[in-house]
Design brief:
- Strands 3, 5, 6, 7, 8, 15 and 16 form a 7-stranded mixed beta sheet that branches.
- It is built from 10 helices and 16 strands.
- It has 2 domains: 146 residues, Alpha-Beta Complex (Quinone Oxidoreductase, Chain A, domain 1); 123 residues, NAD(P)-binding Rossmann-like Domain (Rossmann fold, 3-Layer(aba) Sandwich).
- The chain has 315 residues and is α/β, with parallel strands linked by helices.
- The radius of gyration is 20 Å and the shape is globular.
- The longest helix has 20 residues.
């Protein structure tokens, strides 16, 4: 049981819609005492994701009534209070996904969104694991990748792409990953054959495949990625994308976590992702950490050229 009373903490929120570096500011928010099957989590790290920037820029709606707009869908921390019936105890180290308002010193979460964090898994790594991890798992599962496949991962060095590469390699597939030249050594270390994107992509992929390409996982959403996959002869139903929403007419499969199948794939992947990140079997890079108060700067940097890996806020 928790002894935590309602308290006020600092959070970061969009005070208007626009450039995150300009519109995100600290706000004081009330965190109520947890109710049944709820916990209060003192946040030690919060993952920064591109979708957070899109929300701040108004790409998912710009209703002024929603301001100040809280952001942040993944966090890691320590349980500081529990409600009746919760399966957690004060002091438990946990991951929250999907969090509501993760850019904060503390947050209230339903038990269903809270997962135990092994002590060996650092808080920053844990905070940046699940959003990209479950998305990658959904791609691999939807494409039904097996050891009989040769798979192209478009955007293999990105957050989702790097995990998709590793999951496909672990299934025994031959994996080819597109990326900028500077990331080729990294991708080779993950078990993929790296290929630079740009003019001539289809031919380079064909040469790297040394045979038929049977599946494609797209994390970038460009026409180049989809056109190359189709040109290689991949069946449209085995081209799975999280970004090419304008190409649904080509018969490719689009996943966004909204369908029952997609939700199931993502939920079922969580225990394995946590275990593998803890053991080191799954590589999750943290590129840079920022103080909580620099959330706007973090999102602005994430939208431009930035180092490979996750950005994480440290309250």
């Amino acid at each position: 049981m928790g002894t935590d009373e309602p308290r006020t903490v600092r959070a970061m929120a969009a005070t208007s819609y626009g450039d995150p570096a300009r519109v995100i500011a600290p706000v004081d928010v009330a965190v109520p005492a947890p109710g049944p099957d709820e916990v209060t989590v003192t946040v030690r790290a919060a993952g920064v994701n591109p979708i957070d920037g899109k929300i701040v820029r108004g790409q998912f709606g710009d209703d002024p009534a929603a301001l100040p707009r809280r952001i942040g869908s993944e966090a890691a921390g320590v349980v500081s209070a529990v409600g009746d019936g919760s399966r957690f105890a004060v002091g438990d180290e946990v991951i929250v996904y999907r969090a509501i308002g993760g850019y904060a010193q503390a947050l209230l979460a339903d038990d269903e969104t809270v997962f135990r964090k092994p002590a060996a898994l650092p808080f920053p790594t844990a905070a940046g694991l699940l959003l990209t991890g479950v998305t990658a798992a959904d791609l691999v599962e939807t494409a039904a990748v097996t050891d009989a496949d040769t798979v192209v991962v478009h955007g293999g060095a990105g957050g989702v792409g790097a995990i998709a590469v590793q999951l496909a390699v672990r299934r025994g597939a031959r994996v080819i990953a597109t990326a900028a030249q500077r990331n080729h050594e990294y991708l080779a270390g993950l078990g993929a054959v790296p290929v630079v994107y740009g003019d001539g992509l289809t031919e380079r992929l064909h040469q790297a495949a040394r045979g038929p390409v049977t599946a494609a996982l797209d994390t970038v959403g460009t026409d180049e990625a989809i056109d190359a996959s189709l040109a290689l002869g991949v069946a449209p139903e085995r081209i799975v994308s999280i970004a090419a929403f304008g190409r649904g007419g080509d018969g490719i499969i689009l996943v966004d976590g909204s369908t029952p199948q997609s939700k199931r794939h993502r939920a079922e992947a969580i225990p394995g992702l946590i275990a593998d990140a803890t053991s080191g079997e799954l590589t999750v890079e943290v590129a840079k950490t920022f103080p909580l108060e620099q959330a706007g700067q973090a999102l602005a940097e994430l939208a431009g050229a930035h180092p490979r890996g996750k950005f994480v806020l440290l309250p």
